[in-house]
């Protein structure tokens, strides 16, 4: 009597588990959805993309925006075809004022959303580069009527209010979200922040702190646990605690100079805030003299007092393997908090350094060097192909 041997793929639950383990590359789900109608039905189920993102946890680094003063940010894809994602700014984000200045300032990306400020219409624009969806939030009225006359917004941040464990990266579709503005009153020597909540549609109270240093315009904020951190000129850190609603200044490590880190005091390219282990605040300090990066992390002692601890020193000359002429021409251009990657530029070359594996990758060559910032863009691409004819043919791309 013949036995009926079923394939593991005949088991619906097992097949779903197999599909969940496909690589989180942009081409994975569209290709799998073309195999057959059964696979397409599983992948196009609205619950599947959420499970897929939850399984892989960390979004993919799709590319980065090059941000230069007075220029429109340009996106550079980092993946090879067929996973290469082209991104072009929409027309409404390319406007210039009559005298040639850009109407917009770009403030980086988080949770798959790029943030722009329209300084003519006085509104923040949230833009999803994968779906082209936009949302606008008007500046607070009191900023335009009073405070804004003497101050300018130095830094702006968008983020999902959920914690790291709860956040569905790429699946929240800009709802809900928080928007954080940071600005400085030079006469009062104070920094201020204010938070907009999309759930209420209201800007909150102004939160001030006194500091002699200015928030760097060239470094987006870094989300570390329940705190948002900004780099101050000179290397100190401004920390906002979402739970306590307090601002505090964290001094940079005291003995960085003694450790051989020679840097220009006002140079933002020598310092980078990091997301450390167990949601601790980290700081990378570049030494152009030693051609090295010191990796510091704040840790709590037994008495509950936090202090800086030097975790590692990365010798860049061993990684670059390039002629001596690159010495003192190395810059930190940016950092991705999701993948723990630092963007570096040496002479006319660009690189990334993965801090967990210490893997060093070349990502491009420049015809010229110029002051700029690299703003990484991470997201999950869960576009699928859905049948339009009821069979296995006639398909269309659908973003879920």
TrEMBL record:
TM regions (residue ranges): none
SUPFAM superfamilies referenced in this protein's UniProt entry, alphabetically: F-box domain (SSF81383)
InterPro entries given in the database record: AT5G49610-like_b-prop, F-box-like_dom_sf, F-box_dom
Domain F-box, chain residue ranges per copy: 12-52
A Pfam family this chain is assigned to: F-box
The name this protein goes by in its record: F-box domain-containing protein
């Amino acid at each position: 009597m013949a036995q009926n041997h079923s394939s593991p793929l005949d088991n619906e639950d097992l097949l779903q588990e197999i599909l969940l383990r496909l690589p989180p590359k942009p081409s994975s789900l569209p290709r799998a959805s073309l195999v057959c109608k059964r696979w397409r039905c599983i992948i196009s189920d609205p619950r599947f993309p959420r499970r897929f993102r939850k399984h892989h946890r960390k979004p993919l680094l799709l590319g980065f925006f090059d941000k230069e003063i007075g220029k429109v940010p340009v996106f550079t894809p980092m993946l090879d075809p067929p996973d290469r994602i082209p991104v072009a700014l929409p027309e409404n984000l390319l406007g210039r004022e009559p005298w040639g200045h850009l109407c917009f300032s770009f403030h980086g990306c988080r949770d798959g959303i790029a943030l722009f400020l329209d300084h003519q219409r006085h509104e923040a624009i949230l833009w999803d580069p994968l779906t082209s969806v936009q949302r606008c939030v008007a500046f607070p009225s009191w900023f335009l009527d009073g405070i804004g006359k003497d101050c300018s917004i130095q830094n702006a941040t968008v983020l999902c209010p959920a914690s790291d464990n709860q956040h569905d990266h790429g699946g929240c579709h800009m709802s809900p979200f928080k928007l954080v503005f940071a600005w400085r009153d030079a006469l009062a020597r104070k920094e201020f922040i204010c938070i907009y909540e999309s759930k209420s549609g209201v800007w909150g109270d102004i939160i001030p702190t006194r500091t002699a240093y200015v928030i760097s315009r060239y470094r987006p904020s870094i989300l570390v646990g329940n705190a948002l951190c900004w780099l101050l000129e000179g290397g100190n850190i401004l920390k906002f605690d979402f739970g306590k609603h307090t601002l505090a200044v964290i001094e940079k490590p005291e003995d960085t100079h003694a450790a051989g880190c020679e840097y220009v005091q006002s140079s933002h390219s020598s310092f980078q805030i990091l997301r450390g282990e167990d949601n601790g605040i980290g700081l990378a300090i570049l030494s152009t003299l030693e051609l090295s990066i010191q990796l510091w992390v704040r840790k709590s002692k037994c008495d509950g007092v936090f202090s800086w601890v030097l975790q590692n020193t990365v010798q860049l000359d061993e990684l670059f393997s390039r002629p001596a002429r690159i010495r003192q021409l190395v810059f930190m251009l940016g950092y991705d908090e999701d993948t723990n990657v630092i963007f570096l530029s040496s002479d006319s070359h660009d690189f990334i350094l993965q801090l967990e594996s210490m893997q060093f990758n070349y990502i491009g060559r420049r015809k010229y060097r110029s002051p700029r910032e690299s703003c990484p863009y991470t997201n999950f691409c869960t576009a699928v192909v859905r049948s339009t004819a009821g069979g296995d043919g006639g398909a269309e791309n659908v973003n879920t």
